[in-house]
Amino acid sequence: MSLEFLLAIAFGGSLFTYVLGKISSKLRESFAVLISLTLVVMIVCLYGKTIEKSFYFGFLGLPLILRTNMLSWLFAIAISVLGSLSVIFSLSYIKNRERADFYYLMLLLINAAMLGIVLSGDLLSFFIFWEIMSWSTFLLISYNRGAALAAGMKYIIMSTVGSMAMLIGVISIYTTYGTLNISEIAASSNLASSGYILSILILFFTAFGIKNAILPFHSWLPSAHAEAPSPFSSILSGILIKMGTYGFILFIYVIVGLNKFLNLGHGVLSFRYILCILGALTILIPTFIAVLQDDAKKLLAWSTIGQAGYIILGIAFGTSVSVAGGIFHFFNHAVFKGLLFLVVGAVEYRTNGIRDLNSLGGLIKKMPIAFIGALIGICGLIGLPLTNGFVSKWLIYKTLILEQSPFLAFAALFGTWGTILYSYKLIHNIFLGQLPEKYRDIQKSPFSMQLPIIVLSFAILLFGILPGIPLKVINAIGVSFGLESLSVTLWGIASETGALNTINLFVAILVGCIVVAFIFKAGQKAISVGQEDNYAAGAAIPKDKYHYTVDFYNPLYRMITPYLKDFIDAFYMKLAGWTQNLCSGVRRIYTGYVGHYVMYIVLFVALLIFIQVKWSLW
Amino acid sequence: MVSPVLLIVVPLGLAFAIPLFGFISKRIVKYIPIAAFAFNLAVALLLIPEVLKHPIVVRIGGFPPPFGINLVAGPVGVLFSVLIAVAGLLVAIYALTYIKEGSKEKYHMLYLLLLTGATGVVLTGDIFNLFVFFEILCISSYALVAYIGDRAGIESAIKYLIQGAVGSSFLLIGIGLLYGLFGTLNMADLAQHIESASPISVFVPMVLIITGLGIEAAIFPLNAWLPDAHSSAPSSISAILSGIAIEVGLYAVVRVIFTIFGVSSIFMFLVFLGILTLLIGEMCAFSQKNIKRMLAYSSIGQIGLIVFAMAMATSLAVTGGLFQLVSHTLGKSLLFLAVGYMIYRSGSMEISSLEGMGKRMPLTSLAFTIGAFSIVGLPPFVGFPSKFLIVQAALAKEAVLFTGLIGLVLLGTVIEGAYFFRVVQALYFKKGNGDSERNEAPVTGLIPMFIFVTLIIVIGIYPKLLTDVLNSAASEFLNRIDYIRSVIG
Amino acid sequence: MKSIISLILLSVIALGIAISLDKIPFGVPKTKIGDYYIDKGREETGAANIVTSVVVNYRCFDTLGEVTILFIAAIGLGAVLATRRKKEKREIEPASLVLYAGCRFLFPLILLFGAYISIHGHLTPGGGFQGGVVVASAFLLAYLGCRGRRVSETGIKTVESLGGLVFIVVGLVGLAVGGHYFLSNFLSKGELNSLFSAGVIPIIYIAIGLKVGSELTGVIDHLVEESE
Question: Among residues A121, B481, C28, C213, which one has the fewest Cβ atoms lying within 10 Å of its Cβ?
Fold first, then answer.
């Protein structure tokens, strides 16, 4: 099966969905699901294949190439699976909203563009798909109106800055090497000077860093994630920003190559070390900003930035274990963050758009599936054993400690503590505690929302207990980069410096659970207390006045707020203000008086003649 | 073989004949521009394969150059003729229902003459003849800017007229000096002898001619008439002024610099002038609240980009500049056409009054969005390959200076993106105040818009349609020896 | 202050032009094509008036353009003036009898003079442009002297269009028959200095005369309409 056929289905399907929507909404929805599932099946079939093929020569004589290998496949499968789950989730989420045709068109278009990015074998098609993804994302972020407009503008402006940097990079590579084919560039990049490679990397990493929201380019992300429609937030956070990650991997390991990368600069000033520090900072600061958030989606958004820091840290560190950890963490993050956004979306759907953590609470019995999803999701996010997040974080910690990088290891561990704090806040303020009066009659999520939640929850546990499944693929990717092969088993990783064996953990936790169950059985005489009665020690509490989830972590909040202002965002906003002032200043050149205008013309002529007569410049 | 002279003469004759047609039937008049440009399009397309082999030199009246006037239909001339015919045809279709007020007969005459003048400028091989056609172009645009007859229209037409007149006098003085120096008006003949005169005495006429033409080409600081004129003309005329008139002015500047004077020392100055024009245009557009003014300033920015590309004077850069010129014509004409009906429906040019148009006029808004994306240079629209070529040309210079300048160009693109995306958001994602009933533009408005959309997408995906012509056009500009040889022999 | 700056700027430009003019020898006929026209003009075009041979034959395409410019100016003026609202009617004082009769007497004579200048453009100084202006001056006189009389707008338009069309059709016939050149002089050149000489030149000049005359009359008509 050819790749261009796959992309044709992806792009054509999105347009066709729009057309079908004009006929009937049922038809549109079934077709959208069909297309996204077809893509999953087609990509599954591509497993293990390596194809590289030029398919189009019409563009300025540059061949456009599509290719697939293990790396592309891993990203493609994540895109298509999360994409189809998000489409299924949208079925009820978007049902009664206006402009649903447009929504599906953009959702599928973005998925198609992302598939294009990971399947492209040359930098030109990479750039083209990247741009298509950027503008369609902008349109979909703005979909919710209101605050979404500002979020969309912020996104697209930063994204354009990145794209322009990338455009210079792409064309510079073309003028230097005379080709844009990734494998050909990779073959000839050894000859280039370090300075040139460094400048190219800086250009590209600006683009990737903006998309991946690493510090200091993160400031578009929180509002964009929060304001986008929730099923799309899950794609945005789970996959779309990871296109930046894909770019990082592609450039560091495929195009520049590991050796060259490690030798760019030296000591503290080496490129790799700076990237690692940026990753570490990206873990630390946003994680604690996330703790301060009261908006569920903003909290998840900041958490996304923090988790992206782990991924970058793992990838940039450049040992075989850390790279495996980084790539695996990308994959896991797609699963659990996708899940958490869907859970919040389900809650938002039933509470008519409320995502303020201070006014929610006690939904555990009303929306049990969503609760379970959230529980498993945050377990994965924190990295509890037997969830997938544990394995990837373990790999990263292990490298950092073994390679003696105390600061980075500390940052990674410290970030996890923050993660625990905000994760707990998230699940507690939504599902635990007192149920506000107005949510008494809330209904369970519809099945089309439950299904993606169940599938993703299951995936977290599956990859947590059997991490070998994805690690096999990731190991193959690592080997193709020229990294040492890890001895991966289905149960974990065998290693001299400390093996990981999830089966032992599984048995241990199982035994633990059995013991607890026995204790529980023994204490059966205890009285069962209602959900709300237990935190006022049985005393009656006034309805809706007593809600202790408000100002969660207040002491911590007061303690860290002064240090955690988003200076970078404030700087960008100032910059935007300055630009605006500058622009309206420049506009005053056009005064509106025709006398001035004629004066400009005369001045122009006189000046040129004067310069020429005086200095003979030309 | 069809003669290129028909491209000028047939529309001119039809324009003269419009009053006579008006006696037969008033309704027939508005179809005459369509017929004229359909004819021109056919002729120009037929000429393409021939001129790609060698340029056709037409002697008017049969006198050999430099004694008579001659037309030079090279790749450049035919490329521009096709462009003028396409835009002219589509905008004429749009005007069928768009132009409702005033004397339609006069509108259509002036419209035909404006584009005839433009065709004449790009085809002629004689500098005084260029001046004459240039005046036809300018004077009919003054009249058309004032066509609506409101205060703003007349005021900006008069401003335009004053600045245009200053420019024309400079141009005429410049041509006069050249004639005095070399005793000839034929461009090839002038080019042949230009080196025989002392640099300073050639420099003054060059500056005067460039200034005169540069006013129409909207190069900073000569472009102050543009925002007023483009925003107060009827939208169909704004489309032509932005899409054709300033491009033709730019053609004239480039032709004079490359072919007649052949000076390479002034290129660096023009590179900076282009960058300055680009940045000032984009920054002014950014701070606009009036949609047509915004588009007008954006045209200044685009012209700056084209000047920048042309002044780099490598074959890649000139190809890119011409490509950008084509994509600007397509994109900006489309934008003005789309905006025309939006303003008509909302009754105001403020961007805030266009909010919610995505619902009221979905197809027009779609057309606007595609035009805006193309101007910003997003794939898969036509603005992308052209911007790609320009960046490539700048980087191929392998100089730090040009890399820095291209950074500035792309900074301009970011600003450009910001204001266009803002409008797109307003169209689709802001709730309009006022009625939200669907009230789409009429079919005669939508057909030209969607032909532009189709062109934008098709060329954007398959730029090869254009690159052959553009390449030979670029080499016509750069090889003045070949030009001289093909005319003088 | 402003005027001083303007003065300085303009003097810089004047200096530049002076430098450039400095290189052009004064009073020496230097132009190559000028010599050519003087030497070969008569035999190539058949026109006794060399200026006419240049205007209507060597550089006839320019003339076509210039006629068009005049045409545009006339239409543009009409278009702009037509949009202005009419003011209230002013009282028109009738002209005195002497003036009235004098104007009516002079009117056909001026027309005749204009026609003469147009038709003899290839023989004597003058031509279509000058003749046209003379014709228009006759109408101006009529407007001034014989208040209240107006030319028919249809008539002006018809003559204007026909004048332009004749010019172009002559050119196109030249393209068709005269060796594939637009505006080529396909008629026989006749005998120098006779009325029926110089091929198409008189035809074109007559067309120009009609066109210019009717255009300027139209302009006068518009202005009179505006002032009323």
Answer: C28
